[in-house]
Design goal:
Blueprint: E1 4-7, H1 17-22, E2 30-35, H2 47-56, E3 61-66, H3 70-80, E4 84-88, H4 95-104, E5 108-113, E6 131-135, H5 151-163, E7 169-173, H6 181-187, E8 191-194, H7 196-199, H8 204-216
Parallel strand pairs: 1-8, 2-3, 3-4, 4-5, 5-6, 6-7, 7-8
Bound molecules: ribulose-5-phosphate and fe (ii) ion.
Length: about 220
């Protein structure tokens, strides 16, 4: 499993997003948290900002939609050129249709599960996804404490994914730091989102490399 690091611009300076993207040239992805103040109690950014960001960086965008109606909006992010589009299982009413639309528009399709959502009921969707996102905090805000209770679910997900051929990536998001990343990698995650651990550091690129090195220790 190659380690991939996806810095979350949630913790970046929103007035300087192009510079903040340029500060992490060694990132595999740029994680974009779309929040609508309904599915989660916070409001961030939407499609117009993603469209501008796509013009400002060559780093592929990993769009994490924390919105009430992902079935309506997710295809537009894929159409705009996002490299990966993630919908929440708790929000989607038609996940198969939406995940297929995302793929048919050329993006990787991903399904996200909140900390309290079990993975087993979604085994049937594994054929429809390129990545499974396991939230390691309750979605809505950056800078929260990593929830250790999700570690067994990462192990379960890794076992399920291996049974399905092992090609689906497992992403973790929330409270991922130089300290917690090793536990996530050891449990079976291979894509790591980090907001405050990267954008809370003076040297963002060095923070990305520290995360990558620590994940590789597992
Ligand atoms: O989806 C998210 C929150 O809902 C963010 O991606 C996540 O919280 C990143 O921030 P941090 O690394 O600071 O926890
Ligand atoms: Fe996120």
């Amino acid at each position: 499993m190659a380690v991939q690091i996806s810095p979350s611009i949630l913790s970046a300076d929103f007035a300087r997003l192009a510079d903040e993207a340029a500060a992490v040239p060694n990132a595999d992805w740029l994680h974009v948290d779309v929040m609508d103040n309904h599915f989660v109690p916070n409001l961030t950014l939407g499609l117009p900002v993603v469209e501008s960001l796509l013009k400002a960086t060559s780093i592929p965008l990993d769009c994490h939609l924390m919105i009430e109606d992902p079935d309506r909006w997710a295809p537009a992010y894929a159409e705009a050129g996002a490299g990966s589009v993630t919908i929440h299982a708790e929000a989607s009413r038609a996940p198969v249709r939406t995940l297929r639309q995302i793929r048919s528009l050329g993006a990787r399709a991903a399904l996200a599960l909140n900390p309290g959502t079990a993975v087993e009921p979604y085994e049937g969707l594994l054929g429809e996804i390129d990545m499974l996102l396991l939230m390691t905090v309750e979605p809505g805000f950056g800078g929260q404490k990593f929830l250790d209770m999700v570690l067994p679910k990462i192990r379960t997900a890794r076992a399920l994914v291996e049974r399905h051929g092992g090609e689906i990536w497992i992403q973790v998001d929330g409270g991922v730091t130089g300290d917690t990343i090793e536990r996530c990698a050891e449990a079976g995650a291979d894509v790591f989102v980090a907001g405050s651990a990267v954008y809370g550091s003076a040297d963002r690129a060095a923070a990305v490399e520290t995360l990558r090195a620590n994940a590789a220790k597992a």
